[in-house]
## 1
Amino acid sequence: MPATPPVSARERARASFTADLLAAARTRIAAEGAAELSLRAVARDLGVSSSAVYRYVDSRDALLTLLIIEAYDEVGTVVETAAASATAADPPADPGTTWLAVGRAFIGWAREHRHSFELVYGTPVPGYAAPPDTVVHATRVWAVLGATVAAAAQRGELGPAALDGVAHGLMSTEMIDAAVRLVGGPVAGPAVPRELVENLVVRTVPLFTTLLGATTAELFGHLHGMTDDHDALLDAVLAAAGASVGLRVPLGGG
Amino acid sequence: MPATPPVSARERARASFTADLLAAARTRIAAEGAAELSLRAVARDLGVSSSAVYRYVDSRDALLTLLIIEAYDEVGTVVETAAASATAADPPADPGTTWLAVGRAFIGWAREHRHSFELVYGTPVPGYAAPPDTVVHATRVWAVLGATVAAAAQRGELGPAALDGVAHGLMSTEMIDAAVRLVGGPVAGPAVPRELVENLVVRTVPLFTTLLGATTAELFGHLHGMTDDHDALLDAVLAAAGASVGLRVPLGGG
DNA sequence: CTTTAGCGAGAGCAATGCTCGCGCATGCGC
DNA sequence: GCGCATGCGCGAGCATTGCTCTCGCTAAAG
């Protein structure tokens, strides 16, 4: 049930081939990493000449960009699902537990899709700056983290944080606007004070950088030889970060 | 005053050329990034043929490894200096302030030497795992962080942390041994209980992952458009991390 | 039915990492 | 002081990459 009738046969063929192309590239990246991705190689995998690929994608970097967007959406879905099933549990998880679940899910995704993680959160590929089309997809993880902090605030469970003193006037107005839109949701409930929203936004930053830093350290070997139980160590890092922004993260005894 | 007499002229020439080679590679990396480093290009810069370079270095990756070690030592020196001048100030900085200074120095180094940061903390280059020769140099940053936490403990200024409950039995014995050696120092003072040392080691982990995550986020554009004052936001992240492991970080009115 | 637009293939260009064989010169052992 | 061996630099060459261009063919559009 396509929105527009089966369009032309050509367009269908084109879409189909593009999908195959992306799939092949994804496979090669999973096997060898983004830096090794060779357009000629995926062309060979597909049984077409290398020049034919250029009918469907502008350049190697453009192909990478497509895959970056895919990866952002993938991890976005993973953390959204983790957060959703935490809050949908019976009894619903408190925000601290949700944060822990989200963090574990993020790290788990990165472990399973190392090269996708590298693609989006690792060293940017040589020449290009992240195209603007990617930022929308990148925000999904941020949104989940922000929602968790906001939920804690709403339940009155948010403790004080070391950053409270400097949070005011820190974020750009655009950022706060975006956050207000998220918190307010589609319905216009009682207005949430901007200062509170800003404070919540600032609190999500350490959560994000912790996710990024912990996962990078884990995957890139900076924790090598330090422990036999990486999961437990990462849990400790997550717990510390959660506590630092006022979440109560239950560790150990469960 | 060489330790061994001027050795042979050949050896001196070899050492000299190797130094030139590294310098040229360093320059090119600073200009274009590690991924773009071309052996042929540095050969051209040096006015020799590309094949001549292979007399001095096994491969492109081996050259990268040499530069990785240099970069580790560079950042190690930077953070050591920052910590030293903080504690040497009058009055000496408390551990929380030292941590802030160390964090700022780390981020500052990364900003000034973006490509060096990418080299050591970014996505590992394609095929190879970090050669064991690099780990010794990598520990210097860890040592500074650990010493800061240890100093706070010694002064009785270390607050409780969310990870206290799970810290025991977390780290490998080798890791704790290494830390004991560091804390004990060259002289054999009163024995520090291993459990305390382990707790201190676990506390340095969030500090390191915060450094890594905050710097990665900053340099790789994940904080884009969120604030106009990146320094202040990063300070907030550092403060949160410090507080989460029991350091008192004075921010704002400081 | 004719024209036009899309598409695939192959050759080709400028690079890359790395190997190999050739000569030259330097320095060590005799 | 001399001769051989070793170190060294060079150029050619191979396989690979991203990307461009031209040539036909085929299928859609008018």
Note: The domain at 64-245 of chain B is CATH 1.10.357.10 (Tetracycline Repressor; domain 2).
## 2
Amino acid sequence: MNLQQLRYAHEVAKRGLNITEAAAALYTSQPGISKQIRLLEEELGVDIFVRQGRRLTDITAPGRQILDIIEDVLGGLANLKQVGEEYSQADSGTLTIATTHTQARYALPPVIRAFMARYPGVRLELHQGNPTQICDWVIAGKADLAIATEAIAEQHELVMLPCQQWNRCVIAPPGHPILEERPLTLEAIARYPVVTYDSAFSGRSQINKAFAARDLSPNVVLTAIDADIIKTYVSLGLGIGIVAAMAYDASADTGLRAVDASHLFESSMTRIGIRRNAWLREYAYVFIELFAPHLARPLVQAALQGDSRVDPGL
Amino acid sequence: MNLQQLRYAHEVAKRGLNITEAAAALYTSQPGISKQIRLLEEELGVDIFVRQGRRLTDITAPGRQILDIIEDVLGGLANLKQVGEEYSQADSGTLTIATTHTQARYALPPVIRAFMARYPGVRLELHQGNPTQICDWVIAGKADLAIATEAIAEQHELVMLPCQQWNRCVIAPPGHPILEERPLTLEAIARYPVVTYDSAFSGRSQINKAFAARDLSPNVVLTAIDADIIKTYVSLGLGIGIVAAMAYDASADTGLRAVDASHLFESSMTRIGIRRNAWLREYAYVFIELFAPHLARPLVQAALQGDSRVDPGL
DNA sequence: AACTGTTACGCGTGACGTAATGATG
DNA sequence: CATCATTACGTCACGCGTAACAGTT
């Protein structure tokens, strides 16, 4: 058995059972992969892939289990490298964070500022995407941490740690009648055109749920993936906006007014997602704790080991 | 990086940092191991072992973490092989159980009989040892399951699943005055010479604890690692015995009488120990469920994944 | 006809074993 | 002097790439 064989099988599975594509991705030849996979299957005594004639069409039952284990093993190898880097260059390296616009724009800046001051040698990479992409990146090892809201129903490969709870507010241009509604109701909101998040983002599902529960269908005239866009169009008078409360800054958003809407929508939870069993660099733990002070290192480590007892409240 | 390198480093660490010995154990040459380990260290950029001159004297801090990860990776490889065997020969293979005399003699026979009837093609191996050895065997991959009482305070590498609770009884030759004590007390027991388990076994610690709590020091004249020896000497009149209740069989042990002692000693728990993240053969799950019917497969699997929420009461 | 996986084959690297050397107690 | 790790070196095998071949759509 061979590490390459494991990498090959993994990549082929990842690339939709296409050996040619896997070969290209790994900068090697198709025949090499083909052969090594057959050798692996031979050694294990089980086929991993279903072949119809000369084409891979599916993964066998044992194949699924084998690929799961291979993922663990390859994750372990990545961890080994991390340990090496940690000790050979403790204060330099890269921290890659996959996150959404909302987090990157409103929640992360002070954290990143503090982090950079503390670890000037660490290169920070911020990858922006939707919650699904973000999680995939972390699972694939392309990012160390995912930071998002509602980020996908507990994937097995990821450990999700609760960070902050946040609520929404309704924004409108000054003088808009919605600002006079006391108390603010869903029914009132439903009377005006609404601008809010795209359905893949920022707990848009919470918003839908709240309206659905009252049998209301808001007139959503525009959806965006970030609050800045929403605010822009609300200023233009396109409608009223529903955004994360943290996205409204009274002093900066002078052309807008906001009304708290905590009571209308279930609050959302920002979470950090980390690959299960991942080995994190020292500075990654520091980053996490800067972002969510209650997530102290030992807690995070216990959670990474799959200890579900550790569920740090909020 | 290379699987061999990982195996080498692992074996060297296991063999007390002796490359020569590791080479012998792996049927290869010292220079090969020496070189491959250096290559691994070079690739990771960190020393795993502390060298004083030409001798390995210790493991470095990163080395400890690296070796931990290596253990996981090698465990994964073992799991791959298991999957292969499971599917290539579903009903044949080997199940290796490490256990103590008490379990092997009194608790396991009916289970093993049932198991053998169901899986005639599976070779059963029973390795007998003390709780410490038993756990080590499972961790080292020499055995699939450990079955023991009080088997060591929760090792991180092992998942321990509670199986049965059991109590003790006092045995004595017919006519012995202890048999007339109603109710039986620790003080009464302390008046006679006692024969019981060796301190490494069968919750001997529970016995000590009970006496210590009353400031009594029983006159232990003989300790043994199994109940058969104890019973033999009790029959000879050497003293009274304290054994697991399951070890006394009124119909078979005609030269002995027993008195329940559940109220005197804290009850003990038989547990099954399995390597964390191990991949078990189908028949291993069946065996576990035969032994402890409440330990259904999904429960055991969840526990193996390190899900500590799963703590199946008794 | 285009695409994809498999077989055949030759090359080069790299892992391994033997022998020799260097440290250490 | 015995033990043990490291260096040096030759050998062999295995993984890889190229080329040709064989199914699939």
Note: The longest helix of chain B spans residues 61-88.
